[in-house]
Each structure stands twice: as structure tokens, then as C-alpha cells.
């Protein structure tokens, strides 16, 4: 399961980080701290997301 979750994270982590950065920029927060925090939050949110998706794939 860990192997599948890590493969999914390779896609989900950067995707969520990119979405969070775009939302941050659209909201007008163009300083470096805001962008880095948004990218970090997206990358961290990718971990449980990948784990949940891997669970659902393996249980199907």
C-alpha cells in the first residue's frame, strides 16, 4: 500500500501545491512567505489524500 500511495503522492502533492499557490496569487498575496506556506500546505495535504486514494483503489 505504501508503494501505491507514494506513486499517487508524486501526482497529488505537486498538484495540490500548485492549486494552493494559484489561489494564493489570485487572492493577491504575492509575498514569498504566503507562496511558500501555500505550497507547503498543499504538499502536506497531499499525504493523507494519497493515502485515502490508495486505500480506495486497493479495496475496490
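^ C-alpha cells above, recovered residues below v
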Amino acid at each position: 500500500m505504501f508503494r501505491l500511495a507514494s506513486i499517487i503522492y508524486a501526482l497529488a502533492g505537486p498538484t495540490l501545491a500548485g492549486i494552493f499557490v494559484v489561489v494564493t496569487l489570485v487572492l493577491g498575496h504575492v509575498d514569498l512567505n504566503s507562496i511558500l506556506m501555500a505550497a507547503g500546505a498543499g504538499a502536506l495535504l497531499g499525504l493523507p489524500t494519497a493515502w485515502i486514494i490508495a486505500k480506495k483503489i486497493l479495496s475496490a
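Residues 32-59 form the longest helix (28 residues).
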